[in-house]
Amino acid sequence: MSKTNAISENSRPGTVVTIINVQDPDSEDNGKVSCNIDDKIPFQIKTTSKNFFSLVTDSDLDRERASEYNITVTCSDEGVPSLSSSVTLTLQISDVNDNAPVFERSSYEAYIVENNTPGLSVFTVTARDADWNQNARVSYILEDSSVNGVPVSSYVSVSADSGVIHAIRSFDYEQIKDFQFLVKAQDGGSPPLSTNITVKVMIQDQNDNAPQVLYPVQTGGSLVAEIVPRSSDVGYLVTKVVAVDVDSGQNAWLSYKLQKAADRALFEVGLQNGEIRTIRQVTDKDAVKQRLTVIVEDNGQPSRSATVIVNVAVADSFPEVLSEFTEFTHDKEYNDNLTFYLVLALAVVSFLFITCLVVIISVKIYRWRQSRFYHSNLPVIPYYPPRYSDTLGTGTLQHVYNYNVCRTTDSRKSDCKFGTANSQNILIMDPCSTGTMQRIQSEKSILDEPDSPLE
Q1: ∠290-317-273 over CA atoms, to 5°?
Q2: Under a CB-based contact definition with an 8 Å cutoff, are residues 110 and 199 in contact?
Q3: CA 436 to CA 438: how far, in whole Å?
Q4: 130-173 pLDDT, tens per residue?
Q5: Closest CA to 151 of 164, 168, 163
Q6: Does 450 sit behind a cis peptide bond, omega within 30 degrees of 0 on the bond before it?
Q7: Neighbours of 437 (CB within 10 A)
Q8: Which of 280, 282, 287 is nearest to 265 (CA)?
Q9: What single DSSP character describes residue 373?
Q10: Which partner from 60, 100, 345, 359 sits 20 to 30 angstroms from 222, CA to CA?
Q11: What was the pLDDT predicted at 376?
Q12: Which distant-in-sequence residues (6+ apart) come within 8 Å of 243 by Cβ?
């Protein structure tokens, strides 16, 4: 008997699985043998020749439904009583890549809160493959597409092994509210099989924008005022503050409050609609100029707000309003100019003070350096004792000479003039005195000597 341990699942019906050789030594009917198997399996047994039987497939095989069969073949003779023998065959069904990956859902929706961190893990797509081994290994691929003309690969990325989708950039709800793309799950068979799935990503809003006031328009150069006649009744509509918030949901719900007013008992602001109305009768005692500060606040967490200043003129005639607010404008301009000039004067005085301080310090340093330089360059005048001889041992001179000497810092190069005596001074030492010495010297020669120490 020969048998096949494995058969491919894509085998056609009638494919021979194995050949069975049955021997019965009896003769005539006692030696005639027939074989059969269980009818509930997709196989059948056929007689090919005397004593040889073949096991063939009876229908299509599917490894995903049954990966193994234990087939029991029973052979019996026609004797009386009949004798039989059986054998069990174990048949493995080998896999063929005949199943594409299947996603767990028919579509995916993911939510990302705006202002997210790039690289954030958004969610995971998962697909299964009913095949086996390499044929069941699934990888995930982001299909090429574009979102508002931008490649989707600049928005998200997909991990090939795990199917985790990451955000590439930080999203802004005010710029993009949602987008979708395709993810392909592909197995490792040959040829590979794949399945695509649509993924829709929705950006969730954050309260990252403050309300914007559309009316009244805040102008820097001119002053706009709403006029309220003194004859107006209670509930008179002065004006309406109009504001919008580009956020969505409760982040865009706006409320209006009167933050500051010259007379809170005269005006009120509608909480939901922003309407400014009078809450009492206007009287002659009410000031013409009324300044209201309205705060507009959204309902986000944390909430954001904006303020607007509304100028109201309580008057019956336009000239009265014009005179009051023109004066107010001029006062404001005067105060602004005064502040500017005060700041400018302070800057100039500070600059002059610093400049004078630097000049004084520089002069001090310069004088100190010059003084040191002057003392270091003064000439050294050597001292020589007077030329005299004590003829009698008393230490007195026969003549007294007075000289007027004028010197400069460069005295070594200047001329020095001395008065010259009319007669020669002759000093004679007594040869008997201690340290005997005779020296006759002309006063003129001393004064004319070029290397004299007095020069």
Answers
A1: 45
A2: yes
A3: 7
A4: 999 999 999 999 999 999 899 999 999 999 999 999 999 999 99
A5: 168
A6: no
A7: 11
A8: 280
A9: H
A10: 345
A11: 61
A12: 211, 212, 213, 214, 254, 256, 274, 296, 306, 308
Average pLDDT, the chain: 81
Provide the token pair at 293. Answer: 């500060």
What tokens does 335 get? 């105060």
CB 209 within 8 A of CB 304: yes
- Whether the predicted pLDDT of 25 surpasses 70: yes
Q: Which two tokens stand for residue 450?
A: 């070029």
Which of 353, 369, 380, 227 has its CA nearest to residue 289?
A: 227
Which residues make Cβ contacts (< 8 Å) with residue 164, sequence separation at least 6?
121, 123, 124, 158
Alpha carbon separation from 32 to 29, 81, 291, 422 (Å, rounded): 5, 13, 121, 184
CA–CA dist 146, 166 (Å, integer): 17
Structure tokens at 190: 């040959």
Strand partners, 199: 108, 181
Task: Determine how β-strand 275-278 pairs with β-strand 438-440.
Answer: unpaired
| Residue 31, token pair as written in the block | 């030696």
Within a 10 A sphere around the Cβ of 376, how many other Cβ atoms? 7
pLDDT at 374: 63
